[in-house]
Specification:
Blueprint: H1 2-25, H2 31-37, H3 53-66, H4 70-74, H5 86-104, H6 108-114, H7 120-131, H8 137-149, H9 158-175, H10 183-203, H11 210-217, H12 225-244, H13 309-312
């Protein structure tokens, strides 16, 4: 009876020794299995500097949080002190995966800048300090200028304009955050920022949206940013439908381009000559009868007094033409004498 009990005790002791050796060997979590489980997908953009750090950092954090590794990236999970445990080996695998992923998520110049760092937390902190732009007043001034100059172009939709404006607002909050510590003050500060941004949004819209924007500003309470964006989107739809319903009337085949006058269509109505129209007349502005005898104003006209063209010379009272014919240089002046006519004539200069 003693021998079976001794044999059972020996087997039990051997099982305990084997279990302890397996736990200390680290074979519970193979390295290759951990690396395959923690495979990180590449980002759709690479860090280029302060200009795109905010967008890049948000994408990077989302990708890491999907794998529940944000504690390693942000430094919340420290390296274990005991180098022989399975936790320390797992920590090394995770750190190696994150470091390699960060190197591939930045441009080569930045990768060379941080490749001397050994942990993912150190790389993340260095990139944040270098490119986040917090406290960089030159960058803050640049963002403020972009916001004030941003306008909705003719070929830009309302949502495209809002997306660009919101990206600038996010950069502004990241570089120059409003630091308040009281809960009531924080809520008041958020409302103040929201009101300012509603006005900035309305100011940059095209002129066709100003009427709808004015109606929003006349309300007792200023709408929120979300309500303003929804109202402007609805107005854009209304304007597009209104533009589509406009009926275009085709132009008439026959259109009168100039006022027509009765008479011979080939006869000039200024000089009376045939062969050109009045807009092509070389004597335009000098009066009718310029090149022929007749009443009116012109070189060979009889003048205003009704006398023959060669009887008045420079002494007639006619208007227009050249000297010696219808008045010439002394037109519109009182004639001092009249030669060869009776007192009952109509010469104003006869005595």
């Amino acid at each position: 009876m003693a021998e079976p009990n001794a044999l059972a005790a020996a087997f039990e002791k051997l099982a305990k020794i084997l279990a302890e050796s397996n736990s200390n060997s680290g074979a519970i979590v193979p390295r290759q299995e951990v690396a395959q489980k923690l495979e990180m997908s590449p980002l759709d953009m690479k860090l280029e500097g302060a200009t795109n750090y905010l967008s890049w950092s948000r994408r990077a954090l989302l990708a890491v949080e999907q794998k529940e590794l944000d504690g390693h990236l942000l430094g919340a999970v420290d390296e274990p002190g005991d180098k022989t445990t399975a936790e320390e080996k797992r920590w090394k695998v995770i750190n190696s995966v994150l470091v390699g992923w960060l190197f591939n998520s930045v441009v080569p110049s930045i990768s060379r800048f941080v490749e001397g760092l050994s942990t993912s937390a150190e790389i993340w902190k260095t990139l944040s300090t270098q490119y986040s732009g917090k406290g960089n007043f030159m960058l803050i001034a640049q963002i403020e200028g972009k916001i004030s100059r941003l306008r909705q172009g003719d070929d830009m939709s309302v949502m495209a304009y809002v997306a660009e404006l919101q990206a600038l607002w996010a950069e502004q909050d990241n570089c120059d955050p409003l630091e308040l510590y009281d809960a009531a003050c924080i809520e008041s500060g958020r409302k103040w920022i929201a009101r300012r941004r509603v006005l900035e949004l309305l100011e940059g819209l095209r002129g066709c949206f100003h009427g709808r924007g004015a109606s929003l500003l006349h309300q007792p309470l200023l709408p929120t940013i979300e309500e303003t964006i929804a109202a402007m989107s609805q107005e854009e739809v209304r304007l597009s439908l209104e533009h589509a319903n406009v009926k275009f009337v085709p132009a008439s085949t026959f259109a009168v381009t100039e006022r027509m006058e009765w008479g011979d269509p080939n006869k000039c109505h200024i000089c009376g000559e045939v062969g050109h129209w009045k807009r092509e007349c070389p004597t335009r502005g000098r009066g009718r009868g310029y090149n022929r005898g007749g009443t009116g104003r012109g070189r060979y006209a009889r003048g205003r007094g009704g006398y023959p063209w060669n009887s008045g010379g420079q002494l007639s009272r006619g208007r227009g033409g050249y000297s010696g014919n219808s008045g010439g240089q002394r037109a519109h002046m009182v004639v001092e004498e009249c030669r060869g006519y009776k007192p009952d004539s109509r010469c104003v200069g006869y005595e």
